[in-house]
Write a structure and sequence with these properties.
Blueprint lengths: L1 E5 L3 H12 L3 E5 L10 H6 L6 E4 L5 H13 L5 E4 L5 H13 L3 E8 L4 H4 L2 E5 L2 H14 L5 E5 L3 H28 L7 H8 L8 H13 L15 H11 L5 H13 L5 H14 L7
Parallel strand pairs: 1-2, 1-3, 3-4, 4-5, 6-7
Antiparallel strand pairs: 5-6
């Protein structure tokens, strides 16, 4: 099949390459250049109806602006795919807006990172059956065997990807805390060696552990050159919001999100409050600045 890819970054560029390797024709556009088109209008003109246009760009304003532009450029029955990490409520709204113009919208949660070109991408897809069917050959080319699923109507794909990323937060934090305990212990432990043996037969083995083992091999036990600052891109927050809305306890994911917040605080006012209170009620010594 032929489709258009918007965004040629670490994800979009590799996905474009994998699609081409599997025999699909991909027109492309990126603001930074390097695609087959110099504008969204030119990209749309390079496709045959019903067109398939895949956005692989950052969630938020970039996706919204591009989506609104595509509404004015595409025709009835064309399919717009959002493969970024958009909030699922936005995807539901966009599906409605597209439908009002006779267009079709698909939300595709994509996991695989920079390794996807080689091993494939896990795809969690939401949208109407007829729209998903149009794009399914591309989905199956991008995913490894059994790595693609149509999870439900519009919004379902991004909802499942949101929860996936929330779980990822918790898994990453568990590894981080465990290795932190070992790094600060009385034993002179080789964390690279330990991460290596845990990959073989251990109940905590995983792809994340494989990646941690590689990071320790590259940078050493102290992970030289990496600042203790952890960003989040929104999915963990949204997962916690939905847990609250559904009255579902999610202490691990919530704590992992808060740990990321804490990593960005250079000076904690809350810690000052705690120290001041200990001095006031117990006469405990404080450490001055």
């Amino acid at each position: 099949m032929k489709l258009g890819m918007i965004g040629l970054g670490r994800m979009g560029g590799n996905m474009t390459e994998r699609l081409r390797q599997h025999g699909h024709e991909v027109a492309s556009y990126a603001r930074s250049g390097g695609g087959t088109a110099d504008s969204l209008k030119e990209l749309v003109s390079q496709l045959e109806r019903p067109r398939v246009v895949w956005m692989m760009i950052p969630a938020g304003a970039p996706t919204e602006e591009t989506f609104q532009a595509l509404l004015g450029l595409c025709d009835a029955e064309d399919v717009i795919i959002d493969g970024g990490n958009s909030y699922f409520r936005d995807s539901q709204r966009r599906a409605t807006e597209a439908s009002e113009r006779g267009l079709r919208f698909v939300d595709a949660g994509v996991s695989g990172g920079i390794w996807g070109l080689q091993v494939g991408y896990c795809l969690m897809v939401g949208g109407e059956e007829d729209a998903v069917a149009v794009v399914e050959p591309a989905f199956r080319a991008l995913a490894p065997e059994n790595g693609y699923a149509h999870t439900g109507p519009a919004g379902a794909g991004h909802f499942v990807k949101m929860v996936h990323n929330g779980i990822e937060y918790g898994l990453m934090q568990a590894y981080a805390e465990g290795f932190d305990i070992m790094q600060g212990s009385e034993f002179d432990l080789d964390l690279g060696q330990i991460s290596g043996i845990w990959r073989e037969g251990s109940v905590v083995r995983s792809w994340l552990l494989d990646l941690l083992h590689q990071a320790l091999a590259d940078r050493g036990n102290d992970l030289a050159g990496i600042a203790p600052y952890v960003q989040d891109s929104g999915e963990g927050r949204w997962t916690v919001f939905e847990a609250i809305a559904e009255d579902v306890p999610a202490p691990v994911i919530t704590a992992a999100l808060y740990a990321r917040f804490a990593s960005r605080v250079e000076e904690s006012f809350a810690a000052k409050i705690n120290a001041a209170l200990r001095e006031q009620f117990g006469g405990h010594a404080i450490k001055t600045e």
